Amino acid sequence: MARKDGGPDRNEQGGGKKRRSFLGNLLYWGAVLAVWGLIFAVVFFAIFARDLPDTSTLYDVERQPSITYLDRSGALIAVRGTQMAPPVDLDALPDYVPAAFVAIEDRRFYHHPGFDPIGMSRAMALNLKAGRVVQGGSTITQQLAKNLFLTPDQNMKRKVQELMLAVWLEMKFTKKEILALYLNRVYFGAGAYGIEAASQRYFDKSADKLTVGEAALLAGLLKAPSRYSPVSESERAATRANVVLNEMVEVGAISPAQREAAVAEPVRVSRTLASQHAQYFIDWLDKQIRGLVGEPTEDMVVETTLDLTLQTDAERAVRRTLDRDKGRGVEQAALVALDGEGRVRAMIGGGSYADSQFNRATDARRQAGSAWKPFVYLAAVEAGYTPTTPVVDQPVTIGGWSPRNYSGNFSGQMTLAQAVAQSTNTVAAYVADQVGRDSVARAARRLGVTSEIGLQPSMALGAVEVSPLEMAQAYDAFANGGKRVRAYGISRIRTPSGRVIYSHGAGENGQAINNPSLYYMNQMLRGVITSGSGRSAAIGGRDIAGKTGTTSDYKDAWFVGYTGGFVAAVWVGKDDNKAMRGVTGGSSPAAIWRGFMEAALPKLAVQPIPNGPPLPEGWVAPDPIGDMMGQVQDPYAQPVDGEPGPAIVDGQPIPTPAPLPNDQPVVRPTSPQPAPKESPRGENRPEAVFF
């Protein structure tokens, strides 16, 4: 139809514009989105692929040098650093070994192109429902890509690169090759990389001899090697292994009967790794190695002084007593055992290495209590006192400080040997004041105490913070004939091929205690065991000496004891320095010490406590220790002529201790005086009670 102006109608112009159908629109916009999606994908992957790692290093293994620790007889204690083993051939493994890892880590491994959209969607749904990450969606191929090429950082860039590398691995290698690479490179904890190293580390066998249960346990480790360690978390590891076994049954890798057989057969972890408390000892050595040989640049073998058999005895003794006395507030313990040369033969740094890696044997500083008194009495006998010297247990005040006895009573006249055995505080404080607390400090330092020693009056009763290692080191001089030792744990460091890098030289074991002082001290410290505060530590048929120690309010309890050429120091307490319930040095610490020594001494060629250097010419030993303890003549007895005279022992008069100076009078309080509160760390306790 023509318009009135003679021009063509708009609907007739060019035949008009035809509208697209719904299908046409769908195809059109689909093509547009596809083009833009392709452009976006190209740009996206170009950005993330720009700094992908070099895949040519696929077969290169970069690792830190390993340090293998052996005990004194050559038994394996631990391996620190990276432990690798030759790659294992997948065909050499029982079928159930790789099947265990596929069942628990990536059930659809043989059916996806490197990433699993179904598994990722399922994991995302479960995580959203739980409100936290409860399941991962990474495939074995993705895990391999991450382990080979990427950092463990959790971010979008790393995840995209992981997907890209997983697809690349799937295009380059067969499924069998990918699984073999994975099993030979994945980390199993305890420093072991690869299934062969893990099998050797945990079970002392090659991977081709793994049982169904062992394979399930190793597969369960991968989720969290520390959390599911069969060494430190055996119950949790067993539970996780059961999960793996159930998954293996569900995917048909094993039969229900095989599962039941695996559950019925206990999995036994390597004996050397089962001794996890030896890790405190290894930690102690690990700090020293860099100072001895520098930063390791090659694998090393460290030959140590530790005796794994004795270490096991120590662990059992500590565990038994901690379990028994936890109701009394005993939470932690430490033990150090040295031979006469200062070699560390056993070390326990705490109740559980898995719970706390803090080494209380070497790094904790706790007040020594009466375990410190042998240094007081050593200074005294070096100044002229003897075990039969008369002393008086009576109230005393020194510089405004009045020590109290544990019993709350005063026993009056006694011998020095009796004061040592009964751990009499007033006598120790008085004697230290007479011989000089600086002399006491010098004696302790000479024997091997390295911590700071204050000279306040309460120092005489053990208000000094020391480590169990220091106490064992210092007491070793009493056990080995009077020689000072420096405790050590490394005998030699070598390469696996045998090249010696370091060897412990002859120590500076000079004479620290001469005679008759050493003879006197050993006699008096024997008396602590035979008739004093350490009677519970006595072992029939053994020549034993030692000293108990307990600090005020039962915050720390000690027992340090020895026989010929072997000493052990034991401490118990709480990390927060709170009080235990009536725990003394003669209870829990002595029980640990005796339990350890009863098991250890039959395995050692120990002798009676040596007398040490020659005694002075013409010197005659005093009466036997029994006489020292209770049958010594009264030093203040009246002779026939009615005049007071000194006691006579072995034809020699006993010197009477000098009276206190005028500015330090003897004070006899008419009523008990309460002890003031302590500072948090226990310094300068003016009324502390030690026994």
Q: Can you characterise this structure?
A:
This protein has 691 residues and is α+β, with helices and mostly antiparallel strands. The protein has 21 helices and 16 strands. Strands 2-1-3-10-11 form a 5-stranded mixed beta sheet, covered by helices on one side. It has a 5-stranded antiparallel beta sheet with strand order 5-4-14-13-12, with helices on both faces. Strand 13 (556-563) and strand 14 form a beta hairpin. Helix 2 (96-105) runs parallel beside helix 8 (212-221), helix 8 (212-221) packs across helix 9 (234-250) and helix 14 packs across helix 17 (437-447). The termini are far apart. The model is unreliable at 10-14 and 627-691 (pLDDT under 50).
Tell me the strand order in the biggest sheet: 2-1-3-10-11
The shape is elongated
Q: Would you count the extended β strands for me?
A: 16
Q: Report low-confidence residues grouped into runs of 5 or more.
A: 10-14, 627-691
What fraction, in percent, of the residue positions are helical?
25-40%
- Span of the ends, CA to CA: 125 Å
- Radius of gyration equals 37 Å
For the residues shown, what is the average pLDDT?
81
Kindly list the characteristics that best describe this protein.
five-stranded mixed β-sheet, 691 residues, five-stranded antiparallel β-sheet, disordered C terminus, alpha+beta, 37% helix, 16 strands
Short overview:
Helices cover 37% and strands 11% of the residues.
